[in-house]
Amino acid sequence: MDERMGQGRGKRRAVSWFLAGVLAAGILAALAAAGQYWLFDRPYRACEDCRGQEIDVETMKRWEERAQDGSLGIVRMAGWRTGPDETVTSVSTGRRQRAGVTCVYGSMELTDRGDLLWGRMGIQGEEDFCVISEELARNLFGSVDVVGECVKAGDRTLAVAGVMDEDGETVMIPVAEGNVEYLSVEFDGRMGAEGKMKRLLEEY
Q1: Band of pLDDT at residue 15, cut at 50, 70 and 90
Q2: Which of 117, 149, 172, 201 is deepest in the core (most CB within 10 A)?
């Protein structure tokens, strides 16, 4: 009787050790997969100060065409430049403010101009929208809850798509032409991304 009980306890102990080993192996595999993703496979953004290199929106459009087959690993990109300050006018309140202007081609969220407080950064391909800073929103409208409001900047009337947390009075507007001073490209993984960015700049 005692012998059979001992054998039973031994079998249960062996099963417990086996299950523990399987669990540990599963955890290690999950950690390895997470590490692989974190180090190599998650989207990776490469940024470049390209002032003086004469890179323009047409160049970026050609890159986008080349990237359609997936060989470059480009997920999305943005190019931007600082434009001259402009008077921005609220259509609804009539208030006016001078604001710094950033002209952006591509995905505005890649510009790192500030965290989004309200709304969205806009969708590539849209033209008649803008993203404004919190200070500009408050001075023009008295609030940051201004998504859908319209402003005039230069000869354009733009709908406010979002409000960002950035110091000062600034506005980001989409453009479809002209040179860019800064470039940000998001690749589908970290491995080789810097080399791909370098090749893009060398071959343009």
Answers
A1: low
A2: 172
Amino acid making up residue 188: D
For residue 76, count CB atoms less than 10 angstroms from its CB and return exposed for 0-12, middle for 13-18, buried for 19 or more: middle
- Find, among 97, 174, 180, the residue nearest to 138 by Cα: 97
Q: What is the pLDDT of residues 118-158, one digit of tens each?
A: 888 866 566 789 999 999 999 999 999 999 999 999 889 99
Residue 130 · residue 123 · CB < 8 Å: no
CA separation for the pair 129, 126 (Å, rounded):
7
Distance CA 86, CA 108 (A): 19
Contact of 76 with 45, CB cutoff 8 Å: no
